[in-house]
Amino acid sequence: MRGEMELEEKVIELIIEQLNVTREQCVPEASFINDLGADSLDLMELIMEMEEQFGVSISDEELQNIRTIQNVVDFLRKGGAA
Amino acid sequence: MKLADAGIFVYINYLKQEAAAEQTLAEIKSAGGMGALCPFDVADRVAVIGAVADILLDQGRIDILVNSAGVVKSGLIARTKEADWDSLVDTNLKGIFNCCQAVSRPMIKQRWGRIVNVTSVVAETGNAGQVAYAAVKAGILGLTKSLARELGSRNICVNAVSPGLIETDMVAALTDQKKEQIRSQIPLGRAGKPDEVAGVIAFLVSPQADYITGQVIRINGGLYM
């Protein structure tokens, strides 16, 4: 359980840095594009940063399903990262 | 040279022309400019990524990319070998793609970048005997415009320069008759000088050109309008 919280915190830290948003905005259901003001390049940067930090590879197909912070956390958990 | 004159630290890429690259670097340094040699094959993706990573380690950023690497191979289509087509595509088109891709991420991160791709007048006019070369050079136009749209929001300007008949080794290889035939179609009545191309490239990466992106600047004495 503790590991899962840490993973979520790491993801949120990255998002705050990449998208220049506040900790309060980063609720699990926040949509990158609709709530956090990201555009497609922001998303790409974020994904590449996560791939590097968590040592995973996110396919274009999987990328289609990533819209919210929760989506990312779920994906990373499934992939057994961190 | 023109970029170094503007105070830019210039990495000179080459593959085979080591002596020419060294001479350019010597000229830059004797004029008080800064630069270094950076040999790699632009068609080799891994080599490109490695070279860009090295430059980032040294400098911390990459502001400008000028893609001028190119080979020229001419021949009627019936006599064009598959290997000729492949080498044109690999060096002249994939090479530019490799370099643009490798610098795009650091440029996006730093929210600033200038990319200039060198194409050719034949990209727009076509040229009998240069089907492969012209196809690849036209490909550069599509790449340039698409990349300009993709990266514009990050203040990255991507433009192409399209030289006509310029006094270079490539043109020196033409027959006198062919050169004369082209010259007769040039309103300015002469071939261009390499400096006249370099000057436009230097302009495109200067602050005067901050609002220019996705454009093809033709440097051809009026050969094609």
Short précis:
The complex is a heterodimer of chains A (82) and B (225). By secondary structure, chain A is mainly alpha-helical.
Account of the 3D structure:
The complex is a heterodimer of chains A (82) and B (225). Chain A has one domain (2-78): ACP-like (Non-ribosomal Peptide Synthetase Peptidyl Carrier Protein, Chain A, Orthogonal Bundle). By secondary structure, chain A is mainly alpha-helical. Chain A is 59% helix and 0% strand. Chain A has helices at residues 2-19, 40-54, 60-64, 69-78. In chain A, 17% of the residues are buried. The longest helix of chain A has 18 residues, at 2-19. Chain A has 4 helices and no strands. The model of chain A has no long low-confidence stretch (mean pLDDT 87). The two termini of chain A are 13 Å apart. Chain B is α/β, with parallel strands linked by helices and 225 residues long. Chain B has a domain at 63-219: NAD(P)-binding Rossmann-like Domain (Rossmann fold, 3-Layer(aba) Sandwich). Helices cover 48% and strands 12% of the residues of chain B. Chain B contains 9 helices and 6 strands. In chain B, the strands form 2 sheets. Chain B has a 4-stranded parallel sheet with strand order 3-4-5-6, sandwiched between helices. A two-stranded parallel sheet of chain B has the order 1-2. In chain B, helix 4 (82-110) runs parallel beside helix 6 (131-151). The longest helix of chain B has 29 residues, at 82-110. The radius of gyration of chain B is 17 Å and the shape is globular. The mean pLDDT of chain B is 94. Classes of the chains: A mainly alpha (82), B alpha/beta (225). The interface between A and B is small, with 4 and 7 residues.
